[in-house]
Amino acid sequence: MISDIKTLGMQRCVTGNFRFLVNGLHSVFMPEHIETVDGSPAGRVSMVGVERTFPMKNGARTVLRDVTLDVVPGEIVAVVGPSGCGKSTLLRLIGGLDSPTAGALTLDDEGVRAHDDSTAIAFQEPRLLPWRTIAQNVAIGLPRGTKRAAGKRRVAELLELVGLTHAANQRPREVSGGMAQRTSLARALARSPRVLLLDEPFGALDALTRLNMHDLLLDIHRAQPTTIVLVTHDVEEALYLADRVLMLRNLHGPAEEPIPERPRAQVVALGSSSGIGALGSARAAGITQESHSTARSTNQSIARLVPVPGLRPRDRGARTFTDLRTSLLDGLSAHKLTIKENA
User: Fold this and answer.
1) pTM above 0.85, yes or no
2) CB under 8 Å to 103, separation ≥6 — which residues?
3) Using CA atoms, how far apart are residues 154 and 17, in angstroms rounded to an integer?
4) Closest by Cα among 330, 306, 327 to 257
5) 138 φ, ψ to 5°?
6) Beta-bridge partners for 265
7) What DSSP state is assigned to residue 316?
8) Are 32 and 18 in contact (CB under 8 A)?
9) What is the pLDDT of residues 180-237, one digit of tens each?
10) 256 near 82, Cβ under 8 Å?
11) CA-wise closest residue to 35 among 181, 190, 221
């Protein structure tokens, strides 16, 4: 059953009506209309001049300022940035768990309601109820008023989707961390959200499990192509999963240094090859390292908005991938890569 769902999802991605999402010199294929598993459309998130300021003893502290962004239906947007830049705050605003101090935030042209049922969120910790089974934990995410029989079918479908049918009757203490995180994802998908919010969902997992979870998330997105906003500290994860990467800046951090201009170089990333691979060369496509990725004023929260070329799954060792990875890490002032001059 699940293979049929995945096949249908892939056909929709390959043969559906596509348009170009253009940003600078980048262009990415995006479907014109994407539906979730229950037939409702994937959500469009629009933000215009969004600001979030918190009152403090010594005066107000602005965490987000002048955030303007349009996330198209079915798109995966990854949010990166230093600690304290407002990544999780942005997710809370989209999910209706908090309200902006200023600006407009809409989901499908309607204001976001408190605890909006159109969105669902999964956190870094699975946050499962230890006295309930895996299936019962997934069922918690079902919409209010779901009939018993329909709920059992939906839970069974989700457990099959995340590969946990065999563990349906086990308790959280009896499963691994990766299985617990898969349960959390299934619970978030139970209500067929138009927008899925992921707050560092793989950050606590070991490296191999994290890579497997990346591919699982892409399988889920093909089968149930909702809009996804993903917060992560892992730049490689962002590039592997996302259509665009949103880099936020810490408004209260040290002054930013200019991103260094690098010579034409071969970037040797840990654990990957340096060949061009499936994505080809960014320079061959007429895209420079900065690539006209949208750069913003230093008094705004958004530092850069970078479209990621190529179709998923991406080659982590491709030249485009490593060039973008280096550029983003330069922007975060956190790169420690080996660079070799080309002959």
Assistant:
1) no
2) 47, 48, 49, 50, 51, 66, 67
3) 28
4) 330
5) -65, -40
6) 341
7) T
8) yes
9) 999 999 999 998 899 999 999 888 888 898 899 999 999 999 988 899 999 999 999 9
10) no
11) 221
